[in-house]
Amino acid sequence: MADCIALDGLHDTAAGDCAVAMVSALRQDLDLYPGAPGKTYEPTWVLHDPVRNKFFNLGWLEFELLERWARRDPASIAECVRRETTLDATVEDVATLDAFLVRNQLIRIDDCGATWTLYRSALTKKTKLLSLLLHRYLFFFVPLVHPDRFLQTTLHVARPFFSSTFRKLLALVMLLGLYLVMRDWTAFAHTFERFFSFEGLLYFAFALIVSKCLHELGHAYTCKYYGLHVPTMGVAFLVMWPFLYTDTTESWKLASRRQRMAIGIAGMFTELSLAAFATLLWSFLSDGAARNAVFFLATASWVMTLAININPFMRWDGYYLLSDLLGVQNLQPRAFALGRWRLREWLFGFKDPPPEAHGRRMRRILITYAYSTWIYRLVLFLGIALLVYHFFFKALGVILMAAELVWFIGRPIYAELKEWRRRKTALKWNRNTIVSSLLVALAVLLLIVPWEHHITVPGVLKPSEHKTFYAPLPARLEDAHIVPGQIVSKGELLLTLRSLELDFRIQEANNQIRLFRTSLARQGATHLLERRDVVQQELRKALAAYRGYLEQLSQLQVKAPFSGEIVTVTEDLTPGRWLPDSFALATLVNKDTLVVQAYVTEDHLDRIRQDAPARFHPENPRLQPVNVRVTEIDRASTKSLPEPVLASHYGGPLTTRDTASGALVPTQAVYRIRLAVINPREDLKMTMLRGAVRIKAESESWLRRIWRTVGAVLIRESGF
């Protein structure tokens, strides 16, 4: 649905600067409809241009002027309005309205003068090729069908959906469907896993097409229900991503704001109705293709309606609903004008009157909406710039990304700065300009002064010596000499294991060794002399295997590699229990010395120096920070993370990914820093403690950091 252009929202002061001898003649094909009451309940009208299917909102003054437009003389028109109404019309009002009619091509071509006027207006509106290309690839429409006759023929099928009976039925279906789903929520939530498969993508695409087609039909049938014409339906492309659309511009013919809102909400109401019935149907279907299809219909309809259509910052359904709710046509241009006015007053205190007269509450709403939309557009256009950069090949992606940033972000900012420069003669020192200057100076200081003397990185505090014992091979526990909290000495026997399979292999290898040695002792026989080299080779292999088995046998005698405390022992670790391979048995730590392992990104690595002081802040807020000191800095990035508690897989701050071997690999380059704990306290002597390390580093300004970050990205992406 296109905006209805409102005269009270458009201000062209140039039109009133000069008087006109005769006003332009109106076109005879224009239509006039009564509009919704204004903010102060004054009457309004809607002027319709059927050729371009555009609508223009007229206030009481403009309507009275057009009623007497046939007089053609501006002074006579203004005098007649003053005499016959309570309005104080002026010649400037007539000139402004005439300029508006000419600019929007609503005048009749009777002579060369009118033709020349329209030609000049067209030249001022002519879109440059670059601007056209930027807008066309970003957003464009493709009309597909003219559905009005079909909608009129089939309207009787859709009429029951407009009844109060259907709304009551829908409420019942929605409540019942949600109740049944909550009873079987585990199965419903489990179905979400099918999103991440090829079959799930097919179901999602099917659900999306069905729900969006019904969404647009909801708009179209509601228009026909109110007796309006629906000229086209088609596909709109947003950065090459297709969206269905329905031309419901004729809804501006309706004087009732409630009816226009009904047309705007019809698409979302249709999708929510589809989701409600699909949710209920899911509970009665058995597992299979049909149940998967209705599941995706239910979820896709809910998500797409809430995520896209209700968004008031894009010109989708939510925008027009908000416009009708506030009673403000051309919501974004008028809100933006107020937002720019308020910004200039905050910064410079020009004491300009607001561009429109609104109540204090409405003005705050519009200004808040303007600033929220600007922030949303900034994020959106930055995202689109990154999207087009990655969507196309690199050379074209760089060009399109730069065009996005310059045209849609830089151009509006430049236009506002240009306006500030134009009005520099009106600048005077006042409270606003003083505060603005101080804020600018503060911002510059924050950027250029190297006030940041520390960096904060994730880290883990742990004993310097830490050992977890595992069963080296499937074995039986013969004896356990430890309990949790036990203090042990280096070399002390902790556990005794026995492997019958290993005993058998040792015995077998021992028998082979004796056999081969006996064979070599009898090498005097002729047939044995020929096999001497083969027997010696087999003997060497048997001896190597025997030594390997003895090494494994020694590992079954689990001894303490250092003095420390047994902090954990696996439950039910009783003699006679069979243990699988790599089964965790116990953990030994040396709590006398503590160390902190921290990880820093590449952009901060050069700022850290050896012996730099730091403080470790435990994640547990009940524990006090501890002083530490940098003792070692790795100059090669960490290939795999040895501390799982820092990995994102286990709730840690470092983003990691799994490998086939089970290692946790950081997704960005990080470098390990080892820090010694100064005067360790008893409350910190735990097995492992996650936290953050604040390290004293070389001072750096934000400007230098931004420059280094941007430079690193440019260098990284410079290869074509």
Indicate the radius of gyration in whole angstroms: 39 Å
Unreliable parts: 9-18
The shape, in one word, is elongated
Widest β-sheet, arrangement of strands: 8-15-20-17-16-21
Summarize model confidence as the mean pLDDT: 82
Total beta strand runs: 21
Quaternary organisation: single chain
User: End-to-end distance, in Å?
Assistant: 43 Å
Biggest sheet descriptor: 6 strands, antiparallel, barrel
* Structural class by secondary-structure content: alpha+beta
- Total of helices: 22
Helix content: 40-55%
Number of domains: 5
Strand content: 15-25%
Q: How do the strands and helices of this protein lay out in sequence?
A:
Blueprint: E1 5-6, E2 31-34, E3 45-49, E4 54-58, H1 60-67, H2 74-84, H3 91-103, H4 112-125, H5 129-138, E5 139-145, H6 148-153, H7 155-158, H8 164-183, H9 185-190, H10 198-225, E6 233-238, E7 241-246, H11 257-282, H12 289-309, H13 317-326, H14 331-348, H15 360-391, H16 394-422, H17 431-448, E8 452-470, E9 475-480, E10 487-488, E11 493-498, H18 500-521, H19 526-529, H20 532-555, E12 557-559, E13 564-569, E14 578-579, E15 584-601, H21 602-605, E16 613-618, E17 626-633, E18 656-658, E19 664-666, E20 670-677, E21 689-700, H22 702-717
Parallel strand pairs: 1-4
Antiparallel strand pairs: 2-3, 3-4, 5-6, 6-7, 8-15, 8-21, 9-11, 9-14, 10-13, 11-12, 13-15, 15-20, 16-17, 16-21, 17-20, 18-19
Helix pairs in contact: 2-3, 8-11, 10-11, 10-12, 11-12, 11-13, 14-15, 14-17, 15-16, 18-20
Structure, described:
A six-stranded antiparallel beta barrel has the order 8-15-20-17-16-21. With 720 residues, it is an alpha+beta fold. The chain is built from 22 helices and 21 strands. The longest helix is centred in the middle third of the chain and has 32 residues, at 360-391. A hairpin with a 2-residue loop joins strand 6 and strand 7. The chain folds into five domains: 5-126, no CATH class; 132-326, no CATH class; 331-428, no CATH class; 465-579, no CATH class; 591-717, Elongation Factor Tu (Ef-tu), domain 3. Residues 9-18 have low confidence and may be disordered. Helix content is 48%, strand content 19%. Helix 10 runs antiparallel to helix 11 (257-282) and helix 14 (331-348) crosses helix 17 (431-448).
